[in-house]
Specification:
With 88 residues, this protein is an all-alpha fold. It has one domain. Helix content is 60%, strand content 0%. The C terminus is likely disordered.
């Protein structure tokens, strides 16, 4: 398994945020991951940036999303836990 780079994770997180219910914890967390990964030099710096997210519940959810996405083999391999959300 090859870990993904920060831009791959950012893209996947943005897709998750777009498919999450507006205003939900999942949307806030996925958006935080997308921004952190898109603006970081590398995946390690992106992970460190997530430690500064507040409130705590968003930080914890963002770290969980980041860990799942960063460990995926390839774009599109993310777990399907957006039950009911469909891609356009």
């Amino acid at each position: 398994m090859n870990p993904r780079d920060n831009l791959d994770v950012a893209t996947s997180a943005r897709e998750m945020a777009d498919n999450a219910p507006p205003g939900s914890l999942h949307q806030a967390a996925a958006t935080s991951v997308a921004i952190s990964c898109a603006t970081a030099r590398d995946i390690d710096q992106a992970r460190v940036a997530l430690d500064g997210i507040t409130p705590d519940e968003v930080r914890q959810a963002a770290i969980e999303i980041f860990d799942r996405l960063a460990a995926s083999d390839a774009p599109g391999d993310e777990p399907d836990d957006d039950a009911g959300a469909s891609a356009p």
